[in-house]
Write a structure and sequence with these properties.
heterotrimer, A mainly alpha (186), B mainly alpha (435), C alpha/beta (336), A: 186 residues, mainly alpha, two-stranded antiparallel sheet, binds sodium ion, transmembrane (chain A), transmembrane helix (chain A), DctQ (chain A), membrane (chain A)
Chain lengths: 186, 435, 336
């Protein structure tokens, strides 16, 4: 790999990692918002006879935000559910083979994320144009497109992060924190 | 290929990929995607399956219970409620042989009612009670075994992420599943205490230990200040759900808020700890819900292949007995339990067996309890036993190997199996509380 | 003889009324008619109860070809299928599933809007299903008239929450059918809106023994549709049979729903429930105090170039011909 390409990839890697971390912060705030909204509804309904009529839609909406804003950071910090006992054992005797398998797995994961992105993109475009909503007209409605957009962006970012892992590119600035995350996991 | 062949091959492929180390949701998605593509010779249909499953499976109102109860569990762990309950329990059990072990089980049972995961229980009590037991000369294997064994209470006594997952797969009410888990959870706790007493009597070398001397009786006011916060949380959450005042989602939110207030009032919550709990909540929720999404792709693939229809026909044609099906079911869960985590086991086996169970007129709530208890045995068995891993990682003590944790947990896994058989034999144990 | 494979989907379980009748009426009836000529034979795969899609996912499932034939629950899709709300926006007219089902179905044939909406979702409309006779109000406290609901909390779902806007300070609390029993029992709400059959199924009489017979009316909520690509490949003979049987299925489930409703009311009274009749004057007062949801609905369709106003008038005329005229003229507020 030439120096220029390697620097470019490394910056891309750094950018992807930073975006994942930032999305994680937003998703985290949504968790707090969820606690607040549901409690607000309980109190408003119980004490003031004024239930928040959009509570269900807002909860559904925030579930999408929580899951898909956090997913890239889950991927980044190696916390996606897996059972890597075999890889660890193999790594003791055949470290190179184990490394190759890990990269192939990340490649496979990247392919799946690309497929999800490709599958959901037309959905987003359609919702954007038709302005489709969910909920009950006159009671509470919310548009679909932000949901589809969140999923598309999240899957795309996960695809990039898996590609980075598969290629074995370390993001230059956050390389250290990333390693410590890996160490904790294994 | 017939639907049953597709089902069998896909399960084998998924298990092989997972064993190889492929991320579990990715393994489920890949196999489902390829199965549809090959089965119908239609790439677009496979893409459409992804589209519909990823697009709408997270949009479920009850899923909000996952982040809410996770957050509540993390907050109360950080606030030290687990330690408090443990201190009260150990002051009660201190004179008995194996007393600290019993105290650990009791504290776990209470703590389980305010946390939704076994991981939280395992890490809290590995830190709190293992050092105590080692200090009083308990057998290290027994010490870690007790913590591992009783950590599963976290997922059986409500609230529980696993009961939530099951209720989603089997389309049962989360509230009913929670209530059905109360008696089996308490029963398991009692069975653990009884078996510790029995082991102390007939196999004292496995337990080890000497009566604790350093303890003083806690005063009533100390007991009150250490138990009331937890009890009030249990009152809010389970009381709210049981009386119907709140949906499980609302109970989770109210419990989170109350837990937060308690932690702040007791000055045990730093801004940093609070933020960490939020981040952790997001990570856990995203990982679990992405797994559920992937599993829904898999179960829809089985549906498209026509497997549920084929299984029902087989059942009608062959007239398998209840006992046969249950034996096969438990064996399958135990085998999968060696490799897979609880959520994956539930998500893989439940769609396979629902079409067999439902026509037999059996309660799906009861079946859920059986499933969760059966799948949780896998938390304690090698080579992959999450609770054991967590304990090993939390202790970080070179004197205790992973093998010790598994060996110590084995008797408790056996007790679980016995309790599971009782639960299968007497469905009223799970269902009586609902009527 | 040619064999044609058909995957039938619904997210509701096989025991649900309309799903059960699809298995036990629709499918055998189609098989029987095809057997008369013997040219074609259907190979049915019935996948219900979340095997392939959830209740909200049927529309998309048929659109994407995960199922060939499906029963779409239209109330979930106000945005994609706005014209399907026709019966929901015209309360206090016809508490008769048979009349409403026939009228909505005829509107679907006479006006292009409903079929176009399904066509956009890549599916072909076959028939409308109505599975309930009328929403009523079930209360835990004795109530004599709708006035007694003023200032209370009432549980409901979907469009009927808007009916409460015709009462003074009544708060609508959203919930699912399965939650209503608990919500009333704990006093979270004073009453709940549901139909008699559901009230019997969930033993509402135990907690809400006072039924206010407001007769909001029957509402269409189920539509049988077929994936368009699949439909285009079907032989004409099969298409004809499917269309004919769909109409019979429509009348068949409406008939059963009415029988069930009658039995359910008897059951309700056996279980200690009492039914309070509401006179037309009180119903009219409530209806008049409601916002003009029918005109809102028609205007929404008109603005999209669909003849919402025409559909509304034609629909009300059909109900009138069927013997039902409402306490409020929902076409009075139309701008054209
Ligand atoms: Na729990
Ligand atoms: Na295991």
């Amino acid at each position: 790999m030439t120096g220029v390409v390697s620097t470019a990839l490394s910056s891309l890697s750094l950018a992807a990692n930073r975006i994942a971390t930032a999305a994680n912060v937003i998703g985290t705030l949504v968790v707090l918002g969820l606690v607040a909204v549901v409690n607000f509804d309980v109190v408003a309904r119980g004490a003031f006879n004024m239930p928040f009529r959009g509570a269900i839609e807002v909860v559904q909406f925030s579930m999408v935000l929580i899951v898909f804003f956090q997913l890239p950071d889950v991927v980044r910090s190696n916390r996606l559910t897996r059972s890597d006992g075999f890889l660890i054992l193999l790594g003791l005797t055949r470290p190179r083979l184990a490394g190759v398998i890990r990269r192939l797995i990340d490649l496979l994961s990247c392919v799946i994320m690309v497929l999800i992105t490709v599958a959901l993109w037309p959905e987003f475009v359609e919702m954007w144009h038709t302005n489709d909503y969910f909920g009950i007209p006159g009671v509470f409605t919310a548009p679909w497109w932000p949901i589809k957009l969140t999923i598309v962006c999240s899957a795309a970012l996960c695809a990039v992060l898996f590609a980075i892992k598969s290629l074995g590119i370390e993001p230059d600035a956050s390389a250290i924190s990333n390693k410590s995350a890996k160490g904790r996991q294994e | 290929m017939s639907p049953v062949e597709i089902g069998t091959v896909s399960v084998l492929a998924i298990v092989a990929l997972i064993y190889l180390g492929v991320y579990i949701p990715i393994a489920l998605t890949v196999v489902s995607f390829v199965s549809i593509w090959l089965m119908r010779d239609n790439f677009d249909l496979a893409m459409n399956l992804l589209k519909i499953a990823v697009g709408d499976s997270v949009m479920e109102y009850t899923f909000a219970t996952v982040p809410l109860f996770t957050f509540m569990g993390l907050i109360v762990s950080k606030a030290g409620l687990g330690n408090d309950i443990y201190e009260v329990m150990s002051s009660g059990f201190r004179r008995v042989k194996g007393g600290i072990g019993m105290a650990t089980v009791g504290a776990n049972a209470v703590f389980a009612a305010v946390t939704g995961s076994s991981i939280a229980s395992a890490s809290v009590f590995a830190k709190v009670s293992v050092p105590q037991m080692l200090h009083y000369g308990y057998n290290p294997r027994f010490a870690v075994g007790v913590v591992a064994g009783s950590s599963v209470l976290g997922m059986i006594i409500p609230p529980s992420a696993m009961l939530i997952i099951y209720s989603f797969v089997a389309e049962q009410s989360v509230g009913e599943m929670f209530l059905a888990g109360v008696v089996p959870g308490l029963m398991l706790a009692v069975a653990y205490v009884a078996s510790i007493w029995t082991m102390g009597k007939f196999w004292p070398s496995f337990v080890g230990g000497r009566p604790a001397d350093g303890y003083e009786w806690l005063s009533w006011s100390e007991i009150a200040s250490k138990t009331l916060p937890t009890l009030s949380l249990i009152f809010i959450v389970l009381g709210g759900i049981y009386t119907g005042w709140m949906t499980p989602v609302e109970a989770g939110a109210a419990g989170s808020l109350a837990g937060l207030l308690i932690a702040m009032l007791r000055g045990r919550m730093s801004l940093k700890g609070f933020w960490e709990a939020l981040i952790e909540t997001g990570h856990i929720s995203a990982a679990i819900l992405f797994l559920i999404t992937a599993a829904s792709i898999y179960s829809r693939m089985l549906g498209l292949a026509g497997l549920p229809n084929e299984l029902s026909d087989m059942l009608v044609g062959n007239d398998y007995g209840f006992v046969t099906i249950m034996v096969v079911y438990i064996l399958l869960m135990l085998v999968l339990g060696t490799l897979l985590d609880t959520a994956s086991i539930i998500l893989i086996v439940v769609p396979l067996f629902l079409p067999l169970i439902e026509p037999m007129g059996l309660s799906l709530v009861w079946f859920g309890i059986i499933t969760v208890v059966g799948a949780e045995i896998g938390l304690l068995t090698p080579p992959l036993g999450i609770s054991c891993f967590v304990i090993k990682a939390t202790l970080n003590d070179s004197r205790i190997s992973l093998k010790d944790v598994f060996m110590g947990a084995l008797p408790f896994a056996a007790v679980m199996l016995i309790v599971l058989i009782l639960l299968i034999r007497f469905p009223a144990l799970s269902l009586a509380i609902l009527n | 003889q040619e064999t044609i494979r058909a995957v039938v989907i619904d997210g509701y379980p096989a025991r649900a009324l309309w799903v059960k009748e699809f298995s036990e009426f629709f499918i055998p009836e189609v098989d029987k008619r095809l057997a008369e000529t013997g040219n074609y034979k259907m190979d049915w795969q019935e996948s219900y109860g979340g095997a392939i899609v959830k209740p909200k996912g049927v529309l998309e499932g048929i659109q994407l070809g995960l199922g060939d034939i499906g029963i779409v629950t239209t109330i979930f899709h106000s945005s994609k299928l706005p014209s399907q709300a026709l019966a929901a926006v015209t309360p206090f007219v016809a508490p008769d599933a048979r009349v409403v089902a026939k009228a909505v179905d005829e509107i679907a044939q006479e006006f292009p809007a409903m079929q176009n909406e399904f066509d956009k979702q890549n599916q072909v409309y076959l028939a409308t299903g109505v599975v309930l006779d009328s929403y009523q109000v079930f209360s835990s406290q004795p109530i004599a008239s709708p006035k007694d609901l003023d200032g209370t909390k009432v549980a409901g779902a979907g469009m009927n929450l808007r009916y409460l806007e015709g009462l003074n300070n009544a708060a609508g609390v959203r919930g699912g059918l399965t939650d209503f029993y608990n919500m009333v029992q704990t006093g979270l709400v004073g009453s709940a809106m549901l139909w008699p059959e559901a009230a019997a199924t969930f033993k509402i009489a135990e907690v809400a023994p006072y039924m206010l017979k407001v007769d909001f009316g029957a509402v269409n909520s189920k539509t049988v549709t077929v994936n368009k690509d699949y439909w285009n490949k079907l032989p004409d003979e099969v298409k004809t049979v499917l269309r004919e049987v769909a109409v019979e299925y429509r009348d068949h489930i409406a008939e059963i729903s009415m029988d069930r409703a009658r039995e359910a009311l008897l059951k309700y009274m056996d279980a200690g429930g009492s039914i309070v009749e509401v006179d037309d004057l009180a119903r009219a007062e409530w209806a008049e105090a409601m916002p003009d949801i029918a005109a809102e609905w028609a205007a929404g369709l008109d603005s999209k170039g669909q003849d919402g106003s025409g559909m509304l008038k034609a629909y009300l005329a059909k109900l009138e011909a069927g013997g039902y005229s409402g306490v409020r003229d929902w076409s009075a507020g139309l701008s054209n």
